[in-house]
Amino acid sequence: MRIENLxxxxxxxxxxxxxxKLGSALLVHEDGELxxxxxxxxxxxxxxxxxxxQEIIVVCSGAVALGAAMLGLPGGGxxxxxxxxxxxxxxxxxxxxxxxxxxxxxxxxxxxxxxTLDDLEGRRRYLNASETLRELLAxxxxxxxxxxxxxxxxxxxxxxxxxxxxxxxxxxxxxGVLLLTDVEGLYDRDPAHPEAEFLPEVRGVTEEIHQMASGxxxxxxxSGGMTSKLLAAEIAERTGIALAIIKxxxxxPIACAMAANRGTLFLPKxxxxxxxxxxxxxxxFNGSIRVDQGCVxxxxxxxxxLAAGIIGVFGEFERxxxxxxxxxxxxxxxxxxxxYDWDECDAIKGLRxxxxxxxxxxxxxxxxxxxxxxxxx
Length: 377
Ligand SMILES: Nc1ncnc2c1ncn2[C@@H]1O[C@H](COP(=O)(O)OP(=O)(O)O)[C@@H](O)[C@H]1O
Ligand SMILES: N[C@@H](CCC(=O)OP(=O)(O)O)C(=O)O
Hints:
Number of strands: 15
Number of helices: 14
Helix content: 25-40%
Structural class: alpha/beta
Order of helices and strands: EHHEHHEHHEHEEEEHHEHEHEHEEEHHE
Number of domains: 2
Strand order of the largest sheet: 3-4-2-1-5-9-10-8
Distance between the termini: 22 Å
Mean pLDDT: 89
CATH topology of the largest domain: Carbamate kinase
Bound molecules: adenosine-5'-diphosphate, the ligand N[C@@H](CCC(=O)OP(=O)(O)O)C(=O)O
């Protein structure tokens, strides 16, 4: 689906690859108990989406609030960093066990990924995370993601799962993000204010839009309030990803919001993937690979580059560098982000996939340059 075809906010539900983020305020009752039936209804919505052929990634908060109740910690476990980290450690086990069980009721498998800021900022770790996500989705699993709160300290943490959800959407090349929270979307001021007005659509998160939000979580369980959701919307819009905020309090929350046609849609600024435009905009390269004619034709059909198609390796590039791809005649045909260091590329060039592991002595990447990281000229 191209984002320019997005007519209204309900279309976001149909994105082929969608990130759904569930906030703490929704997951946990006042007394710190998990809202089990509600979560079961979300799992059934995910199963329905999978049946329609949609790929779903879940970013799920709530570990701190759940763990705090289990450990008897005051203030929802947020009074000290040590409390929050211990609470997250305990709560996350329960959370993921519940997800595994609820998805299994629909014959689905959950895959846990606990990420820190560094995992999505550094190129190498970003590539690792995006490859794991792709593989989980390709195998039909549902990735369930949270921040790795039990080890993340302020320097290496997002602190809120809204921005994490937007970054995960980038890493997974998703087209849309749905943030489920306890409010219908963005209001022009604190929604508790009697004159607060609802904004159904935002084109560009400007300074004026930022001024509308506060970082306060009215439930006291969330982190970042509306402020972090706007920061997430900014990340998404720059990357051509549509993001919507909906109220997710009731059972079957996505169906409810879509039926009511109520939510705030943040429209992306452009319809191409910024990751690709970043690659496409690169002017300097640390090296190049030359591929055979069969590979050139495969690329034109939208395939990734495999070791078997490589006939030459030039320059000393590293995994994660953007390099040139040349056709058999040496003419540049594409730019792409390489999955191997130059010497490994040289060692595996021309090899079939099953021979690559043997030559490298470790598990190979699925390809040398993935089509999501490749820009044809
Ligand atoms: N301008 C605004 N529009 C809507 N909600 C806002 C605004 N400013 C602050 N908020 C608060 O943001 C809260 C949602 O954020 P948060 O509690 O962190 O939720 P979550 O746990 O789902 O991430 C709402 O309950 C609301 O009180
Ligand atoms: N990672 C934390 C949640 C942090 C957070 O962003 O919470 P929320 O604002 O409720 O999405 C946890 O699992 O408790």
